[in-house]
């Protein structure tokens, strides 16, 4: 098999989700609608938090940043996937592929850390309510958001460095609708065993550390809520339930993709769709439908 250096690779072939034109038409309508709702939903949350003074608190500042990251994360792969439904031959340039990998891991890694920051915010609010505003001050909130962006960038650049100079060969076909590292390294003209360990360790370590911190935080919160008086318990549990739901939906696919990978193509594609399309849509829905303060802000907006 002839080897092709990275400098000679101009594009990769994307096989997509399916070959049937009927399914492509169906997916085009469905995913276009979901993407539009995702974009409008996340933008709406950011805007309403900015304009409503009642929502100018640490929790909603972090929520606005989460919605912004979801807006960016959904835009990394979904527009390309939607336009590819209209094409017979689907390709992506080498530079476009590397950009998808970089920004996908950048926003994904940043969201993991931001979810930990939101859990810490709830921990301080429920377990140390008298010190909440002294701990979660302006500088702390900005610092938590900056840390999430920095860690996301470092995680992403460390992933990109591993694959950007790999030699590629063969048909250069990606059996998915976007570029991701586990798929791209399989096209490398060398033994990828060590590379797979490094990449899974990098992504898996970040996901595992964040997930453990989240479990510890919410376990401590739930124990504190159960041990103390029931005043405000329902509100605390409602907020934590929304956060925990988002955490499970976000980390579930990550665990299967990186920590517990499967070798079944349709499962990989389903998890990829769920992670890239469904999760950014569910986050604004979960936070708005279960949050009374957001609902009250909507009522004030109508008036």
UniProtKB/TrEMBL annotation:
Cellular localisation: Cell membrane; Membrane
Residue stretches making up the G-protein coupled receptors family 1 profile domain: 41-287
A single MF term (Gene Ontology): G protein-coupled receptor activity
Gene Ontology cellular-component annotations: plasma membrane
Membrane topology: Multi-pass membrane protein
TM helices/strands, residue ranges: 26-51, 57-76, 97-120, 140-165, 205-227, 239-260, 272-290
SUPFAM superfamilies xref list: Family A G protein-coupled receptor-like
InterPro entries tied to this protein: GPCR_Rhodpsn (IPR000276), GPCR_Rhodpsn_7TM (IPR017452), Olfact_rcpt (IPR000725), Olfactory_Receptors (IPR050427)
Keywords on record: Cell membrane, Disulfide bond, G-protein coupled receptor, Membrane, Olfaction, Receptor, Sensory transduction, Transducer, Transmembrane, Transmembrane helix
Similarity remark: Belongs to the G-protein coupled receptor 1 family.
Name of the molecule in the record: Olfactory receptor
Organism: Mesocricetus auratus
Lineage of the organism: Eukaryota, Metazoa, Chordata, Craniata, Vertebrata
